[in-house]
Design goal:
A hairpin with a 2-residue loop joins strand 9 and strand 10 (364-371). The chain is an alpha+beta fold. Helix 1 packs antiparallel against helix 4, helix 5 runs antiparallel to helix 6 (252-284) and helix 8 (331-348) runs antiparallel to helix 10. The chain has ten helices and twelve strands. The protein has a five-stranded antiparallel β-sheet with strand order 2-1-5-4-3, sandwiched between helices. Strands 7-9-10-12-11 form a five-stranded mixed β-sheet. A two-stranded antiparallel ribbon has the order 6-8. It has helices at 4-33, 41-50, 86-92, 133-182, 197-246, 252-284, 295-313, 331-348, 393-398, 405-415, and strands at 58-63, 68-71, 97-103, 106-117, 120-131, 291-294, 317-321, 326-329, 354-361, 364-371, 419-424, 430-437. Helices cover 53% and strands 19% of the residues. Bound molecules: adenosine-5'-diphosphate.
Length: 445
């Protein structure tokens, strides 16, 4: 493009300049012949002698039949012959003709015009120019352009090579990092300097790997915690059965005690596996289709159930609930949330009062469960919703806890777009607050 376009434009310019100059020379000659009634070798020669030197390579003047009357070529002149060149034929038919070509380092141009006497064609003037001067200029331009484009080509090639080497090196680093992480080296990070798109992909990849590592760590901890939790009751069952089997003359009362302990451990195992299954279902993201649930009857059911447990522990359990608190979810999910929070409050409040409130605030339904127990140490508050996290392991176990209750609450609530938070009351005791968007309508009960 760089070479051809300027050349074609310059060539075209030269063609046009040639057409103008050659045709004006022909016009001058036609003018000098214009007074003649008939053309003959003599009168044409006389008229042409007056025409100034034109510098043209050849000039021919023919009569109306195309016979040459005048020729500037000294050797092999065509005077007396018929010169039926295309341009001459055109001129004898009454037209001006012009042709120009450029090849073999020269411009060749031909022009012709008819000579008229009283509107009768009496002959034709034909001029031919052979020009190497302008052709040389054009060739100079062409070779300069060639050199220039070769230089540009080399620079472009070098730059693109450099760029592609830089690019493939950086992509290579990213690929290595992806492969390493795929093989399980989650701590590997892609080190890509700069701020361009590849560096940004590297950063995105690193943050993705961070998340992957966090998830993987959480999964490993969960599996190890879960196996540990399951191992403890299983070990107790094993110990109790061994004691019964290996002790001779064991009295029936002790046997009954041991078997009852085995029963409680089995119950504990059941609770843990039920909670684990619930969490796995929540993790899988396959939720039961959500409807709307009126929270009041569910809360009342939990309170009826928990009042017996509270009574047994000497806890004063009171509640205050508004009507028309409708939330998104299923009845079982809501029951589980209210139950787990109230159960914890009763379990950990050490005989003090527990108050549950359900109310509508703004566009939200708010459930608060507060107790007057020892509360939760500030440093444990951020981790309280983690799986198997307990402030006091022994106490939680003794109280029959699995360490999964609050995780189930938080996962269930979050899956339905709600929030849950834990805090300590200034007067002492813990308070858990759950917020859902309030739904319209009666909701299923
Ligand atoms: P657990 O089955 O042990 O009760 P949770 O997930 O329900 O497990 O609770 C996690 C831990 O949070 C408990 O072990 C307990 O230490 C603490 N906790 C929960 N609720 C309360 C509360 N109302 N008062 C004090 N501590 C609490």
């Amino acid at each position: 493009m760089m070479n051809t376009y300027p050349l074609l434009v310059s060539q075209d310019l030269v063609f046009r300049a040639k057409e103008t100059s050659l045709q004006s020379s022909v016009s001058v000659m036609v003018y000098s012949l214009s007074g003649l009634e008939q053309l003959s070798e003599e009168n044409v020669a006389a008229a042409m002698a007056v025409v100034e030197e034109t510098g043209l390579s050849r000039i021919l003047v023919t009569d109306a039949a195309g016979r040459v009357l005048y020729d500037t070529r000294e050797t092999n002149g065509a005077v007396g012959d018929y010169a039926l060149y295309t341009e001459i034929v055109q001129a004898l038919l009454g037209y001006d003709a012009f042709t120009c070509t450029y090849h073999d380092g020269a411009f060749r141009s031909w022009a012709s015009s008819p000579v008229l006497y009283q509107n009768q064609i009496i002959g034709a003037v034909y001029a031919y120019e052979y020009d190497t001067e302008q052709a040389e200029l054009l060739e100079g331009l062409q070779s300069n352009l060639l050199r220039l484009s070769a230089a540009v080509g080399v620079v472009v090639l070098a730059l693109s090579l450099l760029l592609s080497v830089m690019l493939t090196k950086r992509i290579g680093r990213l690929l290595t990092a992806i492969r390493q992480v795929r093989e399980g080296a989650y701590s590997h990070r892609a080190e890509i300097p700069g701020h361009d798109e590849i560096a940004q992909i590297g950063e995105e990849f690193n943050s993705l790997t961070d998340r992957l590592q966090t998830t993987e760590n959480a999964r490993r901890r969960f599996v190890s915690d879960a196996s540990h939790e399951l191992k403890t009751p299983l070990a107790a069952i094993r110990l109790l059965t061994d004691s019964i089997l290996q002790t001779d003359d064991i009295d029936p009362k002790t046997t009954r005690e041991f078997v009852s302990d085995i029963g409680s451990e089995a119950e504990r195992l059941t609770r843990i596996t039920e909670d684990l299954l619930r969490l796995t279902r929540l993790d899988s993201g396959v939720l039961e289709p959500a409807g709307t649930v009126d929270a009041l009857p569910v809360l009342e059911q939990v309170m009826r159930m928990m009042s017996l447990v509270a009574q047994e522990k000497g806890v004063e359990l009171t509640y205050h609930a508004e009507e028309g608190c409708v939330v998104r979810g299923t009845r079982d999910e809501l029951y589980q949330v209210i139950y787990n929070l109230t159960d914890n409050a009763v379990k950990y409040s050490a005989g003090a009062a527990v108050q549950v409130r359900l109310e509508k605030r703004g566009g939200q339904v708010v459930l608060t469960v507060e107790d007057r127990g020892p509360g939760i140490p500030e440093e444990d508050l951020p981790r309280i919703f983690e799986r198997f996290y307990r402030v006091d392991k022994a106490r939680s176990r003794a109280a029959g806890g699995t360490g999964l209750g609050l995780s189930i609450v938080s996962d269930t609530v979050r899956r339905r777009g709600g929030t849950v938070e834990a805090a300590n009351r200034p007067e002492g005791g813990a308070v858990f607050t759950v917020r859902w968007d309030a739904e319209k309508g009666g909701g299923q009960t």
